[in-house]
Amino acid sequence: MTYDAAGGTVRESGDGREWRGWREATERALYGPEGFFLRPEGPAGHFRTSVHASPLFAAAVARLLVATAEELGTGEVDLVDVGAGRGELVAGVLAAVPAGLRVRAYAVERAARPAGLDPRVEWTGRLPEGVRGLLFANEWLDNVPVDVAEADGDGTVRYVEVRADGAERLGAPVGGADAAWLERWWPLAEPGARAEIGRPRDEAWAAAVGSLAAGRAVAVDYGHVRGARPPFGTLTGFRAGREVAPVPDGSGDLTSHVAMDACAAAAHARAPGVLTVQREELARLGVSGARPPLALASSDPAGYVRALAAAGEAAELTARGGLGDFLWLVHRVGGGAATAAG
Ligand SMILES: C[S@@+](CC[C@H](N)C(=O)[O-])C[C@H]1O[C@@H](n2cnc3c(N)ncnc32)[C@H](O)[C@@H]1O
After folding, report:
1. Which of 37, 138, 154, 245 sits between 20 and 30 A of 109, alpha carbons compared?
2. Is the CB of 11 inside a 6 Å radius of any atom of ligand 1?
């Protein structure tokens, strides 16, 4: 169903050349029949997240889980990985937690359970309720589909519509809750200025934080905050390791940076959120890119090589201009607001 740019009429042609808003087009392209994320190769076949970059990331999340369990005063804790991909993070965390801590692990994912996943992981399409522990969402919110808005030559803000081949046109004026969201979080003034309307991500994050009875909810993503929004938005595509034009035909990822301050506000009623950057959070969790002392090379050559490799991986996870700039949004439920580790 689409709105004609001129008259706002509804049209459905069914010939594969329909105009749709970006939210609906993305939903179909990523999660519809033969959708990009439901394909067998999974996200790791097309791009690299912190989870794939190094097992140090899962080890850091495991330390956060342990800290959360200690704060809750329990030896049995929940771990919920939202947007779990093929379960790489949840499996890595389970492998890294110390013996003695009992973990109920959930992977919340729209794709099917992958073969061979640790049988302790419960694979589910829905958030479990009443979670006591750590809910962690790495690069989930950027894949929650959103509409795109653009200010036309008169300054009227309109939905951007797209065809399956990526052609775009301007559609109906943005109104209602979407217009209110833009006004509060991402006002568009100049003709040609564009924004992704983050309302569905706010709602998704509020629901995720709301599923916690006690513990921490952490969203990690590339993002921006009011006052530093990109003037033309960030919608883009990824396919086979390369950034490509966003085309909603199911052949690649469609993603845009997350308005993390808006997500924080949406979940504030449950617990206040704190925004920091990955390089600081991982440093607090003991991930360091510092080179090992050279003396180790002669006393323990194999250990030196291992430490050097780990330092290289840590450097990638904490790099400026790369993964280290990712935003961490942390809500502590049943406790004060804080950084992830503190
Ligand atoms: C970019 S991948 C990230 C995978 C993994 N967390 C990582 O960091 O490697 C995003 C994942 O979120 C999943 N996803 C998107 N929306 C979801 C939803 N509403 N519920 C569960 N999973 C979702 C997608 O299917 C996809 O596997």
Report:
1. 245
2. no
Mean pLDDT to the nearest integer, 90-115: 97
Interatomic CA distance for residues 242 and 212, integer angstroms: 36
Largest CA distance in the chain: 77
- Assigned token pair, 3: 């709105």
Give the residue extent of every domain in the chain: 2-20+148-197, 36-144+199-333
Per DSSP, helices labelled H in 54-198 are 55-72, 88-96, 176-185
Q: Is 2 in the pocket of ligand 1 (CB under 6 A)?
A: no
C-beta of residue 54 within 8 angstroms of C-beta of residue 92: no
**How many residues can be counted in the chain?**
342
Q: 85 CA to middle of ligand 1, Å?
A: 5
Atom of ligand 1 nearest to the CA of 220: 8
**Mean predicted confidence (pLDDT) in 11-18:** 61
> CA torsion, points 76, 334, 83, 60, in degrees to nearest 10?
-60
Q: Is the pTM of this model over 0.85?
A: yes
**How far is the centre of ligand 1, averaged over its atoms, from the C-alpha of 222 (Å)?**
14
> Beta strands 121-124 and 102-108: pairing type?
parallel
Q: Are 77 and 62 in contact (CB under 8 A)?
A: no
HSE-CB at 98 with a 13 A cutoff on CA atoms is: 9
Q: Is 137 left (phi over 0), alpha (psi -120 to 50) or beta?
A: beta
**Ligand 1 centroid, distance to 228 Cα (angstroms):** 26
pLDDT digits (tens, 9 = 90+) for 248-271: 999 999 999 999 999 999 999 999
User: Could you tell me the fold of the domain covering 36-144+199-333?
Assistant: Rossmann fold (3.40.50)
Say which residue, 162 or 11, is predicted with more confidence: 162
The answer to whether residues 325 and 264 touch, using CB atoms and an 8 Å cutoff, is: no
| Residue that is written with structure tokens 């519809």 in the block | 32
